[in-house]
Design a protein that fits this description.
mainly alpha, 5 helices
Length: 202
């Protein structure tokens, strides 16, 4: 199975390994309609206000991780392509799903929840992908991002705060931290994708 990109929502590109862009179910055959040269990301406005800018840059970073995965098979997504690292593109997707849930649902919304992939021997299990379900991972990620947007929409101001484990945290901090989180891991994704099939791009 090859993974192809599709637009999810009005202004963000995320992977949909189950649906084609027209909404029809995809069969199990190859589907590589969007090479990396076909950049479908929505670029942030250069004149937007603070909140719109932060939200747009976060969606742009989400879309960048999605773009780095498109056109690859499940085996390629699981490949630890850099010899000195245990990272894989699928591991980054699973990690992104966990981070989205922890910051927006647990911290910002005050929900109780458990990790999708509990730690193994103290290590993040999201990066253990040998037996991982690819479609499940992308479905969890897509759901987590939708939940994050919904959680952010309920907060009136960037400067509104919540208390979490003795710390005071604003929506502005959560959005900024998530942009940093994705940007750092998208650097890893750049290296992984190039090592897998030579594809490069922003």
């Amino acid at each position: 199975m090859l993974i192809s990109g599709s637009l999810v929502g009005e202004d963000s590109l995320l992977f949909d390994p189950v649906q084609l862009p027209n909404g029809e179910a995809r069969d199990s055959g190859p589907c590589n309609d969007h090479p990396l040269s076909d950049d479908q990301r929505i670029h942030p406005s250069k004149v937007a206000g603070d909140r719109a800018s932060l939200i747009a840059f976060l969606d742009y970073q989400r879309a960048t991780l999605a773009m780095k995965c498109q056109g690859l098979t499940g085996g390629q997504l699981k490949r630890k392509a850099v010899p000195t690292s245990g990272l894989s593109l699928l591991g980054l997707v699973r990690h992104a799903a966990e981070v989205e849930r922890s910051w927006f649902r647990w911290v910002l919304n005050g929900e109780d929840g458990k990790a999708l992939w509990p730690r193994v021997n103290g290590e993040f299990a999201d990066f253990h992908v040998d037996d991982a379900d690819v479609e499940e991972a992308f479905a969890f990620w897509r759901e987590a991002c939708d939940g994050s947007r919904a959680a952010a929409d309920t907060v009136e101001s960037l400067d509104d705060t919540v208390e979490f484990r003795g710390e005071v945290i604003s929506l502005r901090y959560v959005l900024t931290h998530m942009i940093e989180e994705y940007a750092r891991h998208n650097g890893h994704a750049d290296l992984l994708r190039e090592a897998i099939d030579g594809e490069v791009g922003e």
